[in-house]
Records
---
Amino acid sequence: MSLLQRLTALVGDAFVAEGADASAGQVVPSQRPELAQFQCNGAMGASKALGRNPRDLAEAVIARLDPSTFVETSVAGPGFINLAISGEALAAAIEAMHGDERVGHQMAGDPRAIVVDYGGPNVAKSMHVGHLRATIIGDSLKRIARFVGHRVWGDAHFGDWGTQMGQTIVGIAERYPDLPFFAADYDSEQNVDIPITLDDLQEIYPDVSRRAKEDEELAAAARKATLELQQGRPGYRDLWRHLYDVSLEAQRADFTDLGVEFDLWFGESTVHDRCAPIISNGQQAGVAVEDQGALVVHVDLPGDNREWPPLILAKSDGAYTYGTTDVATVDYRADELDAGEAWYVVDARQADHFEQVFRAARKLGVAPASMVLDHVKFGTMNGPDGRPFKTREGGILKLRDLIDMVTEAAMKRIEAQDLGADMEKDERFAIARQVGLAALKYGDLQNHRASDYMFDLDRFVSFDGKTGPYLQYAAVRIKSILRRVAEEGIEPGRAAAPINDGDEALMLQLVRLPEVIDRSLDSRAPNHIAEYTFELAAVFNRFYEQCHILSESDPIVQASWVTLVETTLAALTLLLDLLGIEVPARM
Ligand code: ARG
């Protein structure tokens, strides 16, 4: 149990003894640390239900608390309870964290099965900033949920079944008419050498997509190709397989370089066979109905204050849509994976799409009532011009370009700071990559996901201020402090009560760690961890200025400080890992 949980339980018991609900005992870090380290604000709410004066209730609760834990308690204002715990109680909490590989965090007692749907790359299309944010935020949420103790799958939900496939097929037919895939008598047994690379695809698709907006004939041909692909035309299926493989391989390599892995690379196509039965069951139930030749689900609900367009399950030609495969994917996750939750880490601009999908999935009986479907929305990463960030003049973002760009910027900084001067080129490059990615990821995760932010590479790669590189550097520095301490033969010992405000502040910061992790998970917002990690590094710096470990004359204090430093390093390493940031071995 974390310190805050223990304090909450103690105060909760006191409230119960006064006839109130245990939930009134919630203890939080104090807003005014100069008065006390912790506080409880439950007396005001609880007093109403009991018909008592809130201050009197607070006094009665205090009278029931064990004085050996709480050195000082007082009531302030309308009934706030201030709680100052003893140095020994604080030290015991640190001691418990120090020996614990979970650094004091208690595994969830109710493990849930969660699919985190993030990344969302598409066959034949380049990734844009939305995919980058989805990747960074989704990967962090996956790591947090897994650490907390849930069973988690990260699924890339590869976009491989929509209109862009038909458009790409048509574009390839224009450019490579001699390929056998387009022949009516295509024979799938033949071995074809296919000259098309991902770079070609990234030209072909945007070209056709742009022209199809004006050229109705081309658009119709692309729709037909999409439909024929979905219906299983052998030449198209074989060509599709190639496009799929080429895209998957390249994109997976980019994700790997970002330090991101998926457990599932399922795509829209994975659930193709589920679509027809869902639709026919829906028709039988009267939920899927005809509308202007298409089959749709009406998703508006009583009480809506806006109109909701229906979700299209099959277009008038019979083709499935992005919505159809998303509904079928809910079915897959509920049915095959037995997932209790699915989190969609996707751009806020798709909010309507997901609301439609979730409503349709419930109406069609695909998502059980107990299943949590959550669109974890995020805002845009903008360039300095205030528009969605692009790596090239007029072009869209390529993950590869971006990784190269942040690595290069990090390398310049590393050289400017004269770090790693004694290293081989390879090692320096590896560190520059780690630093560049930390800059990119922390630059994103320090913001609440719902807000837009500006991509400011200069600031992100700086070793000063609230940045990923600063935090990496802090961790590396602590490692070197511990090396020096070990060289002097100083060993960690029992955590002792704090002796100044430097070590007390560090201890108080450390004991908050478990709650911060839980809060990030509950609100699906890694920025709480990002913020806390930065504070931890800052509080550590103040501690280190004030507490001179090497020259400390009291061996008990000295050994206790080493324990505190080790606990800080364990915490920093864990937290950075939850943000997807690696700590270099040295710098
Ligand atoms: N491929 C989609 C896109 O590029 C994102 C997929 C998000 N996940 C989902 N289940 N729809 O916009």
Note: The chain is about 50% helix and 10% strand.
---
Amino acid sequence: MTNLELIKKATLLLQKRGFENSDFEVACILCHLSALDKSHLVLEYGKPVNENLANELFEALERRIAGEPLQYILGEWSFMGLDFNLGPGVLIPRRETETLVEKVLQKAKSFESPIIFDLCAGTGCIGISIALKRPDATLYLLEKSEQAYPYMLENIRRYNLSNIKPVKGDLFSGFSNFDLPRPDIIVSNPPYIKSCRINDLQSEVKHEPYLALDGGEDGLDFYRALFEKWFPCLRHGGFMALECADDQADTISKIFSDPKQEILIEKDLFNIERFVFIRKQQEWMQILCRNGENNVN
Ligand code: GLN
């Protein structure tokens, strides 16, 4: 059998099981197993199959058919044009989150050598992408999961970044429990699925860690903690940038609207309200607002 025949056989196997991008998936797995890039794979088409490789391919396809995400089988996935190590126990970076990073980079332009927190960092994809684009910034990446944290460390090492400081810990313990400087910017894509909804998720998502998905009874536990335990530490004039589910942006704005802050809801590439940006007013603005309220009373 030639490599091309093997590819056709494997593609058909996935197709029959209802996989839409079967040829792409087979190519990804084969390139990963043979350490070839896709353009070189084509050059191998006419050559006879290596038995071991064929066996490994079918083992991987079995895992895939059992519902394991392609990304876990490959052990890495691309985000912002960078490859991140990952595996079971850590959330797979999503395309939507790239928009969050782009918007943060845009809004961070006016900050010189900013201190930035990435809370619930997972693979570290958000913080690492920002750190690479902004070598003048210092990033603190917080992650509590025993499984996710080592992937985050691997990814920081992979890009040889000295402007990132990994922090192991729980967002719910709050800023005051860590020995950290006050940040200019806080970014977070926290778990936001309602606990009762986790079982309705598609089977692939169910392979991702519960910890990275479950946002509590109404899905908003992390946003409340971000408001109560992290927003106060933000420097005046700084901002928080949050990703959320498609029906949460308004409610999150309300959580942050007291005391009055400058809040902006932004859409993702599918035109869905996905991000909430909250700018912490300058101190003099807050005083002015407070006085204004007093006058009204
Ligand atoms: N910040 C990481 C990401 O966006 C992980 C998020 C999470 O675990 N909820 O991929």
Note: The pocket of glutamine is lined by residues 91, 93, 97, 120-123, 125-126, 189-191, 212 (CB under 6 Å).
